[in-house]
Amino acid sequence: MRDVLEEVLTELKPDIVHVTHLINHTSVLLEVAGKLQIPVYTTFTDFFGFCFNNKLEAANGDLCAGPSTSRSNCVACYLKDSAQNGHANGWLKKAAIPTAANIIARGMVGTHKAGLLKNGYLQGMVEDLIRRPETLSYLYNMYYKGAVAPTAFLKKSYENNGINVPMTKIWFGIDIDRQPKPERSSLHIPVIGYIGQIAPHKGTDTLIEAFKQLPKNSAQLKIYGPTDQSPSYMEELRKLSEGVEGVSFMGTFEQSRTAEVFSDLDLFVIPSRWYENSPLVLLNSLATHTPVVVSDVEGMTEFLTEGENGYSFKRGNADDLAKRLAHILQTPGLLRKLSTTTEYLRTTEVMAKETFNLYQQH
C-alpha cells in the first residue's frame, strides 16, 4: 500500500488530503502524506480510531466507553466475534458466549503480560489488540491537522480516548426533496418505517416486539433492508413477526427513491443497540418531515427535540418503545402536528463551506 499511495499522491499533488476512513487504506496513508508534506484532515464517522469493531459495543452487547487499561475488553470482543462467525477452533469456540469471552480474554491478557502465552497466533492477536489504540492515537495526533466530528458525542469519545487532534463539530448535510408530507385520508392507517441494515446490533427485533404490542390495525410496519445480510437473524425476525398483521419486509431500494420511500412513512424508528453516530437515514427522515423515535443514545438524541420532531425510548426496551408508539398513534392529530415541526435544513453545500473554513483556520 505504501508504494501505491505514494505514487498516487505524487501524481495528484493535492493541496490537502481529507480522509473519511482508513479501514481500506490503512494508517500508512497518513505516513505517506506526512512524508510528502501534504496537510491531512479527517472526518470521524465512527469509533475506528480507538475501537477495533467501530461500534463501541462490548462483548455482552452493552455500550462501551473504549479500551480498558488492560485491553481485555477489546480481546473479548474479538474472541466473541470470531467464535460467533465460525472462525474459532477448539476451546476458543466457547468464546461465542459473552461471559466466557470475557473470562478467556482476561486470562489471555494476564498470561501474555507474564510472558507465558506461547501460541504464536494468539500471542500476535493479543499484542495487536493491546497496541492498537496507542498506535492509532500516535499516528492521528502526529498527522491530522484537524478533524470533523459530526456529533458532540463522537468528539467527546475521541477526546476521552487519547485523540487530541483539533476537532470541529460539523453536522452532515442532506440533499433531498423536502416537500411537506402528503395529506392523509381519514381512513389512512399510519405507516411506521425502518430503513437500514438488518443485523442484531440494529435492534430490528426490538421494533417488531414493540409493534406486536400495538392494537390490531393501528399501524403498518415496513422494514427496508437487505434480507440476506444475516440469514440467521432474518429467520429470527420472520418467526417473530409470524402471524402479525401489518409487518412487511420490503427489501432494499435505489438511493434515488429515498424521498419517495419517506413520503410514504408517517413515523420512522431507529431501534439500534449501539452508539449510532449521526446516521444519514435519521437526517433524511428529519429532512423529509418524517418524525422519529430513536434509541436514547447520544449520537442520535443530539438531533432530537422531544415532542417537536420525535421521541426517544430506552435502548433495547421493546415495552418502552411500544408505549412511545402507542402514545403517538393514539393521540389525535399528533402525527400530523409532528410532521409540520420536523425538519433538517442543512445541505451538503453548507457542510462543504464549513469544512473549507476548517482548512483555512489551520
UniProtKB/TrEMBL annotation:
<dbReference type="GO" id="GO:0016757">
    <property type="term" value="F:glycosyltransferase activity"/>
</dbReference>
<dbReference type="InterPro" id="IPR001296">
    <property type="entry name" value="Glyco_trans_1"/>
</dbReference>
<feature type="domain" description="Glycosyl transferase family 1">
    <location>
        <begin position="179"/>
        <end position="339"/>
    </location>
</feature>
<keyword id="KW-0808">Transferase</keyword>
<dbReference type="InterPro" id="IPR050194">
    <property type="entry name" value="Glycosyltransferase_grp1"/>
</dbReference>
<dbReference type="Pfam" id="PF00534">
    <property type="entry name" value="Glycos_transf_1"/>
</dbReference>
<protein>
    <submittedName>
        <fullName>Glycosyl transferase family 1</fullName>
    </submittedName>
</protein>
